[in-house]
Specification:
binds zinc ion, mainly beta, two-stranded antiparallel ribbon, twelve-stranded mixed β-sheet, 224 residues
Amino acid sequence: MGERVAGWFRAGRRIGNRPDGLTSWRVTTPDAAAAATVAELLGGRPVLNREGEEEGFEVVTQEAAVAVQLCGRGSVRTELMQWTAKGLVHHCDATEYLSPDGERGRPCGCPRLPDERRRRAREGRGPLPVTRVLFRLGGALSAGVFGFRSGSWEFAGAAAAIRVELPEGGPVNGRLVLRPQEWRGAEGGAVLFHRPLLEVRQSDGEWSVSAHGRCRAGAGDPAV
Ligand SMILES: [Zn+2]
């Protein structure tokens, strides 16, 4: 999927060095038109932002659940990466190396069990997951392909389960959700945070796949 990403959905933000939880999705984009579409569809207003992750616009929306349309298996992808002072020293899909080119496709030696991979990463001996979901907005299919990235093992596990069920191609409807969850620290204090989840809608046990395998299908969609 070599398409340019119109904007990124983000599950929180940082103020200075401090993480600041948000109860609704935040979207960053370099594109004024994409920012306007997001604000119209999901609430909030575009603000010019020069200090965030990327220069451009930021919209703190009013929605914790967003209707999305995935396009087949390529929409959900997890890579594992280990960065050190030397740079990217391990880049794989948990089975084979993805880079550098000379190593691509060779067995990478990561453990087969996710829990084991997670333990190795915690000990600084293995790579961490980066899961990327690409989607169109259910309410504005023509507004381009948006993305969401997560570094969480839980999200990677859930994404892998969804991925194997997705058809090779063709549009599938789902939702990107920020679900409130309580976390109890060692001190016993409860912290409320919002966990990002990808849900793929099912009706009568069927995947919600549009009848015709055209991912960009949408009434009035320009032929991009
Ligand atoms: Zn590996």
